[in-house]
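Example (one chain per record):
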Amino acid sequence: MTAGQVKDIFKRSDLPFPRSLLDFQRLFPDDYACAKYLEAARWSNGFICPYCNFRSEPFRFSSRPGVLRCRSCRNDTGLTVGTVMERSHTPLSTWFWAAYLVSSQTPGISAVQFQRQLGLSRYETAFQILHTLRAGMVRPDQERIGGGRASHVELDETYVGGRVRGKGRGPRDKIVVAAAVEVRRRQSGGALDNRKGGRYAGRVRLTIIPDRSALSLSEFTTSADVPGAKIITDDWSGYADLKRLGYRHKAVAERGDPAVAEKHLPIVHLVFSGLKNWLSRTHHGVSPQHLQAYLNEFTFRFNRRFYPFNTFRSLLGLASNAQAPTYENLYSGEWRHPTCSGYMR
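Predicted structure:
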């Protein structure tokens, strides 16, 4: 499956998506129904063997619904090959429940809640499934923001992390997170014209950066924003190189005045506020090791907030061709969570 197919596959009208729990139970009552959905997603006009290109109705196995056997060459094709579900012993129905719960609930779901609702015997299973889905929330060919309908981009950074016992509330042991948010204008004549001056958030990019230096902030900006975009920041010296990099940069001196921030950088501050509330309320804080995965989930959910029912299909589609972490890699620190537009720490 090519990157273009991964991006566009779930725009198809022939693939239904559940709008409620009752819809989900009707559409996906068992592993066989989930397998049929994956098959239809991969071959809209019927099964074609990837080994011999023979088109026909494949052999099916009641005990192995995720495997199809070609009638011509007798080779087996796994429906989860190339997805984050590959090599998993977890039933397909559990994966589909995970995708639905993650995508349909506005505040998301924690591993503890997921384990309890599906009756999983081990917390580790729930933890790995959710992190595996988060790995599929970042497209390999993710676009940079700031073009199209965006009037400009607000760019800022913040510290994420709670108070450390015995160390107070300072920035010690906290993580620097950078954000770039498209600012768009509402069409005139609407009820929300006067809210934030008619401005609202388009797409967002969130990434951990090593520090607030000019190098780190410039690397994040070039990975997240299209060349030549208009960017508004505060007057931190780390943004001094943006004009040299070809951006139309406007630096605003906040000087600790909330009225100035509200006028020039209201959208990015709302994003940071929503992010921190979500991390503390839904997940009760996260470890620095896995923070990027939660930033990816927040970004995925935020960018699809106007199409809440389509996130389930999008998540299964984006998960195709995504590399999945193993439980050992997650806990050992070997796994590197994907970031926006290929930015790497």
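Caption: Residues 18 and 25 are 9 Å apart (CA to CA).
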